Fold this sequence. Notes:
CATH superfamily of chain A: Luciferase-like domain
Oligomer: heterodimer
Distance between the termini of chain A: 33 Å
Number of domains of chain B: 1
CATH topology of chain A: TIM Barrel
Number of strands of chain B: 8
CATH architecture of chain B: 3-Layer(aba) Sandwich
Radius of gyration of chain B: 16 Å
Largest sheet of chain B: 8 strands, mixed
Order of helices and strands of chain A: EHHEHEHEHHEEEHEHEHHHHEHEH
Number of helices of chain A: 14
Distance between the termini of chain B: 23 Å
Number of helices of chain B: 9
Strand order of the largest sheet of chain B: 1-2-4-3-5-6-7-8
Shape of chain A: globular
Largest interface: A-B, 21 and 22 residues
CATH class of chain B: Alpha Beta
Amino acid sequence: MKLMWFHLMPYTELPDDFRDTNPSVWVDIHSKLFDPKRAHHMYNDFMDELEYAAQCGFDAVCVNEHHSNGYGLMPSPNLIASALARRTTDTAICVMGNSLALYNPPTRVAEEFAMIDVISGGRLIAGFPVGTPMDTCYAYGTNPSQLRSRYLEAHDLVMRAWQEKDTFAFNGRYNQQRYVNIWPRPIQRPHPPIWIPGGGSVETWQWCAEMDYVYCYLSYYGYKAGQALMDGFWNEMSRLGKDRNPYRAGFLQFVGVGESRQHAFDLYSEAAEYFYGRCLHVDPRWATPPGYVTEATQAAGIKSQIQQAAGAGAIGSTTGTRFAAVAREMDAIVDRGYVIIGSPDEVTEQLREVARSLNVGHLMLLLQFGNMGKELCRYNTKLFADKVLPNMKDLFGEWEDRWWPQPIGAAQRAEVPAFLPKLAAE
Amino acid sequence: MSEPETTTMDINGFPTRVWRKGSGPRLGFLAGFGGLPRWVPFLDALAAQRTVIVPSLPGFPGGDRGHGVLDTHLDWLLAVRAILDQAGLTGADLAGSSVGASLAAEMAAVWPASVRKLALIAPFGLFEEKDPPTDPWAQRADAVPGLMCADPEIWKALKAMPEGANSIEWPIEQTRAAEAAARIFWPLGNTRLEKRLPLIAAPTLLLWGTQDRIMPTSYAERFRAAIKGETEVRMIDGAGHLAELDQPHAVAEAILGWTA
């Protein structure tokens, strides 16, 4: 199986009373909380951490896109990915991803992803999220009534831009471009692997099945909350006659490794409580722009609300509504499975069970979260890489991962000059 | 309060509801934010003296999913023009509220012969940076009734599911109404209507609730100053954004007087 190292790049110095004195971590978070000189160190630490994860042997490093967000400092994940393309050699670079409807023209995504693919020698995983309501409708002002149709059209434009050999005219409903002809073209043919992060909408599952894309459930609520949803995904795959190849799916999980469960509990409590307490503090008025949730998904949600007792396992239909019911103290965070903690053996055992029960071949791990500092992050990453990762790799060996990057051979790759100025001093 | 006559017309392939009631010269009404999921006392007050004709707008209650094919502002204007034509309102007096008022103003501006006299209740369409409208789409659900009406209970009653209604379809239809308004007016409510207001030659009555918490009352003067035809501004005490719901008789009386 594949073990991927994911960074959200949270601002690590939100004040202790953030929750009580600020309406939201997203959209209208106040600029006075952002210190660019401190953020200079945060960005550089985060990029060090991603490079370190690649050195430690993770299969991929992952970045994503958020706007006006105190827990996600990557409005442009492509900038980070291009830097990673130069400082890593064999690790896949997963950009999870670019919210297609936000780019005008969306051809920009085809170009930038092609650049990353070419610079990295064909190591890009191209993620295409619709994007959250906060990012798309509020921070970027996209019309919620057109967001999904714009997203689908932009997808078609990007795919054609990557694959058509001749200059073409794109005559879309929202995008018209007389001369589409991107330079550079991606190394991976016919195109880099496409992964789709999504919530629980059946339409997204069906689309992934139809297009043969990877579906990723990027939840902050761990494997317990994710089980029902992933069961739904696999049931739908069976209904559509697709196999249960676990590489059709990706799943995000927070993990903290220590010498023992108690040691890990003590080590990671502060960072976890920072994330679940401060980073997920989102004003509910940003939760549901009308039209963002399709009518079919609204109907499914209303039906399940009628069937379930109120609150029992309901996780809400958008990112914003899910945030309201979140656990914020370490006991509950661990009990509910948001963060898996323990000794390397305990973590291995839990993660093997998670991978098997969710049937997920691409596990995206958050080993830095909240205000976790660089030293603890390195410790967590290293311990995981040395003691957990090797004991996971055999899982799903019987399946082929048809959705993994196909880089050019090592002999064909450019030699990147060493840039390790601190190494001699260490 | 008796029920109106209901007919259905085809607009861009979508069944679109038209209510008719009363007798006398025709008077059209285009509903505001949220639309009209049920008949309201304000329409009865108009029907007491006039043939009141109330076509639904695309995507609003009674307008099916017609908003989904309208991508540009021109698409919207042509759809509303077709609605007025088919509902028999061409050349009649026209009133509108909120989002409906904005479209009524567009009709009078772009097709001057299509509207005799105009009455606009707190129209959308303008945006003044120093005095912005409230964002109706970024609100906690429990805040919306108090933003739409001076008396929140009136909005709640308008939107409450009637006995026997489909418990899945009804809430989706109310969300769709907010989406349809978003489709025209997202994100600021600014359709550059100010460029077309000088084309309005029809005598225009501007009505505004003194407690409008969506559209600042100062916008009444902006509309008045920009419209070419005769204008009059009248403030409605005890009314919020949807003044016709808070004060049905005062608003109806003003419109009936203006269009008499």
